[in-house]
Amino acid sequence: MDITELINDIGKIIVFLMILMSIFLITVTSTKKLSNSLFAAFLLVTAFDFLGMFLSIQNTTLNSLKIASVLLQMPLYYLYVQSVCYFNFKLETKHLLHLLLFLIIFILFIATSISDKSYLFYQIITKLQYYCYIIAVLITLNHFKKLYQENYSANHYSIYKWLFQITVLFLIGSSFVLFRNFISYGKNNILLNSLNLLISFFALFVICWFVLKALYSPNLFLGIDKNLTPLKAIKKIDIEVEQTLKQLSSYMVYQKPYLDSELNLQKLALLINLSEKQLSQLINQQIGKHFFDYINEFRINDAKVLLKENPDLTVLEILYKVGFNSKSSFYTAFKKQTSQTPTAYRKS
């Protein structure tokens, strides 16, 4: 089997996996229908583009549609990121603007029969669009990270980490393609074929990893409120603030609201009769911690006691008792606070 045949076979596997995953996302019962639909649309559009790895499309209109559809990939991925990060994200009429470049290029290809000039213009637009959306995704993830740290105690970091890793993988794949474009001009067929094979294997790895993460980590689809805004600093502490801090501390110690794994800023503010803004300012500006870290500190302190005084309890039982809902988030928070794993702490 030569390199070309191997690339063709890899392409068929990639397209099959993308279509299979899309069918699963569309048909599975879920509270995240919008996210799943956007993810499925992204996979289907990408699969349509990957048909070029093993199939030659002779029809000019269909070929124009396939090539132009590349300009739908990043808008769909960007909207998918938005829907995963923010549970109250909704598609609106303004989002149709993301289709504009695709429509312009598709019409241009139909009018010019994919001339050399129109294709060169398409290549430039594609590269510019790709990196603009990558920047937009990174800005979204940075904003998401800041908000979940200030307002949520649940482990939203896994969502951030997953989407950030995917974005980095996209950048790596894009770098391979850019390098291939330079090789093409040099007409080094051996190097070009080897690079095409590398890109094919990389694409196969990404889609397999993407699919497995989606299947085995359903908690990655939580989301936060997109209407929250980052807080500004408060410099002065008055008597009223000090009293409120004591009230908060007393409530945390005696009522232990942190044992609720779904505790967030809104719930805690309601419990102690404060506005969300007041509570968030207290924790972020006066205590100097994010809500996420503040709540986990109480949980870890309880866990430390249980680890020492209850040797019969497993680590898994303890993490659920103190308010965590996943082993990874518990281990991360525990090591951050104690510089030890729970097992090592218990033995010390």
UniProtKB/TrEMBL annotation:
Entries under SUPFAM superfamilies matching the protein: Homeodomain-like
SMART domains documented for this protein: HTH_ARAC
Pfam families xrefs: HTH_18 (PF12833)
Transmembrane annotation, as ranges: 6-26, 38-58, 70-89, 96-114, 120-141, 162-183, 195-216
Record keywords: DNA-binding, Membrane, Transcription, Transcription regulation, Transmembrane, Transmembrane helix
GO molecular function: DNA-binding transcription factor activity; sequence-specific DNA binding
Protein name: AraC family transcriptional regulator
Organism: Tenacibaculum caenipelagi
